Amino acid sequence: MEEREKTIVPTEEGSGNANDYISKRSILKSKRFLIITGICIIAVILCILAIIIMAEGNKNGIEEKTTTEQSIQGVHWKVEGDALIIYGNGKMDDYDYPEDFTGEQWDPTAPWWELHENIKEVVIENGITSIGKGAFFEFRNLTSIEIPDGVTSIGECAFCGCTSLTSIKIPNTVTIMGDGIFRYCRNLTGIEIPNGVTSIGNFVFEGCRSLTNIKIPNSVTSIGECAFASSSLRNIEIPDSVTSIGTSAFWDCDNLTSIDIPNSVTSIGYAMVGGCNSLTIIEIPDSVTSIGNAVFSDCIGLTNIEIPNSVTSIGDYAFQNCISLTNIEIPNSVTSIGKDAFSGCDRLTTIYGISGSYAETYANENGYTFVKK
Predict the structure, then answer these.
(1) Per-residue pLDDT band at 74 (split at 50, 70, 90)
(2) Cα maximum dimension of the chain
(3) What 3 state SS string does 255-273 have?
């Protein structure tokens, strides 16, 4: 039979050596445990520090390395602190943006869009010749922008929703201002339109609630739809160079008390000054041949208006809800008055006009007192 290996049992004399052996093994195990525990603690601390550093970097919108991009046209950009610097040569790209502010939202395509909450300053250097469509859409913390003399055009909605922007200097080299470029810049107080601009586009200053005055240069020939709607303009002088004023151009300008329409304008479009609560008097020039639909609707402060002999038609709802209007003179030239033209004018009781004119017929048919002039 195979002999088994005998287990050596320590005797009483050898028990001291065995205890020393066990004690040493216990100490080694304790040291290993402490070392491993220490390494784990250090690793955890390093991970926490890394997370904190990354969070701070994201918070400030600053990467450890300067972010740089390049477009096909050779326009570059970089970020330094909270400043976005655009440099190079040529035209900036146009970028898509969500045109319907109340509809489905999606991110604009500008390459720097991800930084839009962190950028406070935009510097465009010499060599750039245009600012692209939607370039700085809803950069809500943008307070300053520098545009060089080389820029000739600013694309539509370039600064839409830049709610912290208070002023901007547009160089005289700019001749094209796209639709809605300052739409909903509610803190914009000062801006000068360059002399080379020929058209103020649609919605350019809509919702600029802090804009109280602006000078329109003689180079401008047209004012677009809702161009100054819902702004805080107090008065405005339109130069003789302007021949057309778009739909609702000054709609809902609550603080507008007077507006000077030049002889070059031949028609007053839909709701041009509708909802202008502070407008008390307006002079219509002899060049105007028609007063469009709802032009003066909801002008609750309007007390007096003189319609010139050149006007042949007054549109639907033209003076609807002008509750302060007590009387009106309608010239012999007017041959048509639209539906509900004076509905809601509760104080209007008298219409003045020429005997036998359409004004007399209209007054008799609609329950107004007619007074012959």
Answers:
(1) confident
(2) 147
(3) CCCEEECCCCCCEECCCCC
